[in-house]
Amino acid sequence: MMTPLMLPSAQLRGDRIARLNLLAAAAMLATASLLLILFQLFSLQASFQRNLHIQADMLAPAAAQAMRQDNRLAAQQLLAPLAAAPHIRQALLYSAYGTPFARYARSSIDAVPAAPRNGLHIDYLDGSAAILKALPGGGALYLGASLAPLYASLAQFAAFTLLVCLCAFGLTFLMVRRTRTAAQHAENHLHYLAHVDSVTQLPNRHEFNDALAYALARADRQDSSVGLLLLDLDNFKIVNDTLGHHCGDQLLKLVAERLVVILRGTDIICRIGGDEFVVIVEPADDSSEMASVARKILAVLAAPFDLEGHQLYVSASIGVSLYPFDAQDVATLTRNADTAMYHAKHQGKNRYAVFKAEMELRAQRRLRMEANLRRALQNEELYLHYQPQIDLRSGRIVGVEALIRWNCREMGQLSPAEFIPVAEESGIIVDLGRWVLQSACRQAALWCKAGLLDSLEHVAVNLSACQARDPGLMDDIRAILHETQLPHGLLELEITEGVLMDNIHANVELMRRLQETGIHLSVDDFGTGYSSMSYLKRLPIDQLKIDRSFVHDLPGEGEAIVTAIIAMAHSLHLKVVAEGVETLQQVEFLRTAGCDNVQGFFFARPMTAAQLTALLLERRDWSTRTILPA
Question: Helices 429-449 and 357-379 sit at what angle, rounded to 10 degrees?
């Protein structure tokens, strides 16, 4: 599996801090050692001076007595014990006339000092000290000493102090090193958590942003290009919903392994969230090379995945963008690849799309549409049209279907085929569907009170996939029917076959609850959703609506399919409505095949409530339009 990119900035910063800490510790220890050595020097110096004064004071009375008695032998014997004091180099007794009276010298080379000065004097450069003390009765005592013992003691202390300092620094170094090692491990772990996807072990979104920015900077230096592929697994949510998130994670791992195997070692593969992966390709010569990489990815994902006894087929929608041709920065390049990916999804999935400028315009239009759609309800920009449904036997209007329309203040009149998918993707469809249901029921209640629905069996309202999953749907329907006082039997809800099969068990339960309240149910766009016959006979429905794509091929290629649908529906005691009827030939075929009701431009286009009210008041008989002229 691909190893994540490691950015050295944090590690270098940590190493720099560790070195600064060591330097600070060394400076503090050196300063402390120097201060201790200086303190010891002053202490030894004071002790040395004190010892000289004591020795001079001890010798002074006896020396003065020997000089009064003019006893040179006694004076010499008095000075002789100084040999036991290693720091004393020589001692002299001066008579009252300043002439030497007695002398002790540790070495014969020590010369008699010339004109010594009174008091204590120390010469650090020469390494000697001397004291001249006046004796009572005249004369003086001179002691000359060496500083070598003081220096030796100071050197020993300094060596011991430096040794302790080095040991302390060594311990500090070990502690800093251990702390730095632990911190580095923690940093690596945090880096792993922050930059590596825990499921696939691929770099995550944060690492992707850094890697892409680095790749773009390198492309600028080398005057090359960078390709970005953003792929989203199609229908991955179904795997999570049916097999569980554990199987979903295992599938993501298998997908990541296949991607790593087929791509080059220089390509960077990241999982940026959910079921989305990105591939950074550099250098990327042109869009044809990127298209080749996209085809390789689609091909490797085409083989089934063996997962806990299941064979899963996974496809992907891939968006391709190229730097610097499609964008000049990371955010724009990523957004363009995402735009191209959604274009591929809208084109049918399991394909790739190379970014083009017009895709961005469509994406911006979609954003504007979504923003305006959220305000449309408050701004009263939405309204309903109604399209009649005609009974082929009686020629009477037996039902109407409520169809939403939108005249946007900013964007003008918009087709439901354009804004309904946006509403479904953004979740606005639930509020939109509630408004349609409430408005249609209010209008139907007005028609009912006016006695215009005596021949109508129902008013049909479409139910979206999001509404079917809304736990508050039943409460909304009950509240609207209670508010409008519309008889439950006049309301018909249409659910497309695709929505119905999306979560068949939950939808069957919902339809049973709806039917228990007296509401009629119809399966819309029948023939396009791959519904199972075993499920169809268990569904609590009243009607099937043949999709307009089959009606369009009448008479001709669609005859066999339409005839089979009508026969099957009647065998299950279901009524059949054909929508999208536009020609008399289509009407004649459907009447002959036994279709119950029809709906389409041949009879009436969708119209406002006022126009339909006039049509209902007219009580028109449409039977003359359902028979071919002889």
Answer: 40
Please state the three-class secondary structure of 523-591 as a single string.
EEEECCCCCCHHHHCCCCCCEEEECHHHHCCCCCCCHHHHHHHHHHHHHCCCEEEEECCCCHHHHHHHH
pLDDT in tens, 555-592: 888 888 899 999 999 998 899 999 999 999 999 999 99
The CA radius of gyration of the chain, in Å to the nearest whole number, is 51
Q: Do residues 294 and 326 make contact, with C-beta atoms less than 8 angstroms apart?
A: no
Segment 121-127 long-range contacts (CB within 8 Å, at least 24 positions apart): 122/45, 122/49, 122/147, 127/151
Exposure string for 390-424, b = 16+ CB within 10 A, e = fewer: bbbeebebbbbbbbbbbebeebeebeeeebbebbb
Which residues fall within 8 angstroms of residue 17, CB to CB, at 6 or more apart?
A: none
Q: How many CB atoms lie within 10 A of CB 549?
A: 13
Q: Are 251 and 277 in contact (CB under 8 A)?
A: no
Residues 317/343, Cβ–Cβ less than 8 Å: no
Mind listing the pLDDT tens digit for each residue in 225-244?
Answer: 999 999 999 988 888 888 88
Cα–Cα distance, 287 to 361 (Å, whole number): 20
Amino acid at residue number 476: D
3-state secondary structure of 458: strand
The Cβ of residue 291 has, within 10 Å, a number of other Cβ atoms equal to 17
Kindly report the backbone phi and psi dihedral angles of residue 382, in degrees, each rounded to the nearest multiple of 5, phi listed first.
Answer: -95, 150
Q: For residue 7, is pLDDT > 70? A: no
Asked whether the beta carbons of 202 and 44 are under 8 A apart, the reply is no
Task: Give per-residue burial for 572-598: e unless 16+ CB within 10 Å, then b.
Answer: eebbbbbbbbeeeebbbbbbebebbbb
Count of other CB atoms within 10 angstroms of residue 315: 15
403, pLDDT greater than 90: yes
Is the distance from CB of 236 to CB of 250 less than 8 angstroms?
no
Q: For the segment 495-545, what is each residue's pLDDT rounded down to a tens digit?
A: 887 777 777 777 888 888 888 889 999 888 886 655 556 567 777 888 999
Alpha-carbon distance of 569 to 539, in angstroms, equals: 12
Using alpha carbons only, give the angle 495, 498, 501 rounded to the nearest 5 degrees: 90
Q: What is the largest CA-CA distance in the chain?
A: 178
Helix (H, G, I), strand (E, B) or coil at 521: strand
Torsion angle in degrees (nearest 10) through CA of 596, 597, 601, 605: 180
Upper half-sphere CA count for residue 235 (Cβ side, 13 Å): 11
Q: Percent of the chain having pLDDT more than 90?
A: 34
Q: What is the DSSP letter of 111?
A: P
Q: Do residues 170 and 31 lie in contact, with contact meaning Cβ atoms separated by under 8 Å?
A: no
Given a cut of 60, whether residue 627 has pLDDT beyond it is: no
CA 483 to centroid of chain Cα atoms: 46
Q: Is the pTM of this model over 0.90?
A: no
DSSP assignments along 167-232, one per residue: HHHHHHHHHHHHHHHHHHHHHHHHHHHHHB-TTT-SB-HHHHHHHHHHHHHHHHHHT--EEEEEEE
Q: Are 147 and 129 in contact (CB under 8 A)?
A: yes
Token readout for 626 is 């359902």
Residues 197, 275: Cα–Cα separation, whole Å: 12
d(CA 301, CA 350): 10
